[in-house]
Design a protein that fits this description.
The complex is a heterodimer of chains A (167) and B (332). Chain A is of the alpha/beta class. Helix content of chain A is 29%, strand content 29%. Chain A has a single domain, classed as Rossmann fold, CATH 3.40.50. Chain A contains 4 helices and 8 strands; from the N terminus they run βαβαβαβαββββ. In chain A, α4 links the parallel β4 and β5. With 332 residues, chain B is an alpha/beta fold. Chain B folds into 2 domains: 8-149 and 305-331, Rossmann fold, CATH 3.40.50.1370; 152-301, Rossmann fold (3-Layer(aba) Sandwich). Classes of the chains: A alpha/beta (167), B alpha/beta (332). Chain A: Its EC number is 2.4.2.9.
């Protein structure tokens, strides 16, 4: 098990890049939504740093997974919480790791069931190789490649630590 | 001929996960809690403008109701539709079985239509179990009430309602009042309450409306409302099932109401924050006074709402258990 990367420092840089990105797009009042679990921790930090007045949203994409018929329902599924209208809003969607792109696809499917957003900006701490769908994050903390027997996990929420473990 | 499988085992796959939902017998606290937790997360789906998730998209659910039902059938239908399944409602009284076709042939025809799940209500105890034994591995059976035996989804929606209002089961005293004898709901409720760890389950009823084995199910018997409701946290009123009463089990409805009907006065025997439940349909002025049924302690309409979420949870868990069982079988 290896702890790597200074997550706090990366998050600071990501917030700067995100602010610049939103300014370029002329987005002034975004909704920040994290994908459980790691994405929610990061979204909470970004939400505070951007000074967004509305509460942070949380998505649990378990009901939208495309592998439900193979792996079944996640027994720890929790209800999603979007305490604001998403219709016509600019959304900042945050996840800790983007790899295949399937989680983001599921998250976007779920978001559209709440309403049609004006835009979605995708933010991820780690962008891993292995994309299976044409989904690319707008803001990335760090690009990484893992060996076949490795996996990466964000631990938190008090202190955010990114660990690479052997499977 | 092989021995029929114990229904409590038949409903679990090799990984111990639900693949049918026939009874609460044999299901442990962890499984019941998982059903409640999953149902909790489905409640939020009902509050969305688009009240659907895609879990059962492309699956076909058949409502096989051999016995009349409005509320249960409607909530099962809504639950399946909110999971994006295609739903077929079969009115058995006008279907092939009334033209002489056997139940087995009807089921085989439905299976040949690539159905994935049968929701079964039947007046005969054990009918869903019988069907679960005879269907192919590609079909899951959900018991929507069989005879006097079990009504597990109703009991689970009651448990969800209790947990929402009381937070936990430990330490609670729960009274079930009325026609225990004919009630499949009461049997499933007593099983669920004891598995989930309440302090005491009481039943309050005249002797003529009590089954002989009631204490062996894990309930203390009371014959008066004053004693039975003393300091209880939850009161579950049952419907008088007049259609199942073969003899004169009651002197009169009026006398039943006098002795066992829940009125504002009798409600005072319970804790001040006790909740009042009823599985419906309510016979006002027979089982319960309107002022109580519509009063601040009533959670009867919460039960109806929770019925959809619990049925969504059970259907999705059974479908995932079915898929896991098929995957395991084909990879062997």
């Amino acid at each position: 098990m290896t702890a790597l990367l200074d997550v706090e420092s990366l998050l600071g840089e990501m917030c700067d890049s995100l602010s610049a990105h939103l300014a370029t797009k002329n987005i002034k009042n975004p909704c920040v939504i994290g994908i459980r679990t790691g994405g929610v921790w990061l979204a909470s930090y970004i939400h505070k740093k951007l000074g967004v007045s509305e509460p942070c949203g949380e998505l649990d994409i378990s009901f939208y997974r495309d592998d439900f018929t193979r792996i079944g329902l996640n027994p720890t599924v929790k209800p999603s919480s979007l305490p604001f209208e998403t219709e016509g809003r600019d959304i900042v969607l945050v996840d800790d790791v983007v790899m295949s792109g399937r989680t983001i696809r599921a998250a976007m499917n779920e978001l559209f069931d709440y309403g049609r957003p004006a835009s979605i900006t995708l933010v991820t701490l780690i962008d891993l190789d292995g994309r299976e769908l044409p989904i690319q994050p707008d803001i990335v903390g760090q690009k990484m490649s893992l060996k076949e027997n490795q996996q990466v996990k964000l631990k938190g929420p008090e202190k955010l630590v990114l660990e690479v473990t052997e499977k | 001929m092989a021995e029929p499988k114990d229904p409590s085992r038949l409903q679990l796959n090799d990984q111990g996960r639900l693949r049918h939902f026939l009874t609460l017998d044999g299901l442990d606290k962890a499984t019941l809690t998982e059903i409640l937790d999953t149902a909790d997360s489905f409640i939020e789906v009902g509050a969305r403008s688009i009240k659907k998730v895609p879990l059962l998209r492309g699956k076909t659910v058949v409502n096989l109701f051999f016995e009349a039902s409005t509320r249960t059938r409607s909530t099962f239908e809504l639950a399946a539709k909110r999971l994006s399944a295609d739903v077929l409602n079969l009115n058995i009284s006008t279907s092939a079985t009334s033209k002489g076709e056997s139940l087995s042939d009807t089921l085989q025809n439905l299976e040949a239509m690539a159905s994935d799940m049968f929701v079964v209500r039947h007046s005969q105890s054990g009918a869903p179990h019988f069907i679960a034994e005879s269907v192919t591995p590609n079909v899951s059976i959900i018991n929507a009430g069989d005879g006097r035996h079990a009504h597990p989804t109703q009991a689970m929606l009651d448990m969800l309602t209790i947990r929402q209002h009381k937070g936990q089961f430990e330490g609670l005293k729960v009274a079930i009042v009325g026609d225990i004898l004919h009630s499949r709901v009461a049997r499933s409720q007593i099983r669920a309450l004891n598995t989930l760890g309440v302090a005491e389950v009481r039943v309050i009823a005249p002797n003529t409306l009590l089954p002989v084995d009631i204490e062996s199910l894990g309930a203390n018997v009371f014959s008066t409302m004053q004693e039975g409701l003393d300091s209880v946290d939850v009161i579950i009123m049952l419907r008088l099932q007049k259609e199942r009463m073969e003899g004169a089990l009651l002197p009169s409805e009026h006398e039943f109401y006098e002795l066992y009907g829940l009125t504002t006065e009798k409600l005072k025997y319970a804790k001040p924050d006790a909740i009042v439940m009823h599985p419906g349909p309510i016979n006002r002025g027979v089982e319960i006074e309107s002022a109580v049924a519509d009063g601040p302690q009533s959670v009867i309409l919460n039960q109806v709402t929770n019925g959809i979420a619990v049925r969504m949870a059970v259907m999705s868990m059974a479908m995932s258990g079915q898929t896991a069982a098929i995957s395991a079988a084909t990879s062997e």
